[in-house]
């Protein structure tokens, strides 16, 4: 299949491209900056231009939309929101116009309100699953939540079959200690639910979503199987969320994000841990 991959030059995009190429797919990378990994082809395109977006996606069998400003920090909030919303709307509508039925959206666990909240998020229970209430506060989280709604609107019209993958912090062996190391000093707060996903596991989830025969719009959490902390999960929860309801035991360093739905729908199983880096 020919997959049009937006955001192909970023950490997530590179990993997705590598996974799809290794599986024998053709990948047309689409990004505002030059390619950073092997692709079948690459287009330097501003996806804020709808006409250019249509041209960039033409001929693809599947669209994977991973392009976005990845966090609200260091940017004007209105820029984060307006850019991410414009990209999501243009890529979805261009896919609909071109008759591309399969769509995979890079969403985020930030739809829950983590980790960029201003007022602490009230958790209903742990581990988190797809039934947990959403509570976005910041521009990035709101853009990802509404991005899923844009996808859902096209699905509701009968024009797409889609999967939205809600991921925590994406990491690799090269980035983990630099990015996560400083966070451990404040891990007691649970601000990011001690969650991450190895880029290779994220890529495997996207490949599975591309190849799956699912219908409608699935919104699925994917995560590493463990937390990034060296403290047992039960102890982390007692410190950060002492009154939260625990739906099932979380032994050892188990993640607080339940990925059972992704396993059932896509066969997703996280295979990589920072403990192996």
UniProtKB/TrEMBL annotation:
InterPro entries: Epimerase_deHydtase (IPR001509), NAD(P)-bd_dom_sf (IPR036291). It holds the Pfam family Epimerase. Keywords: NAD, Oxidoreductase. One of its GO terms (molecular function) is oxidoreductase activity. Residues 3-215 form the NAD-dependent epimerase/dehydratase domain. Belongs to the NAD(P)-dependent epimerase/dehydratase family. This is Nucleoside-diphosphate-sugar epimerase. It comes from Kaistia soli DSM 19436. The lineage of its organism: Bacteria, Pseudomonadati, Pseudomonadota, Alphaproteobacteria, Hyphomicrobiales.
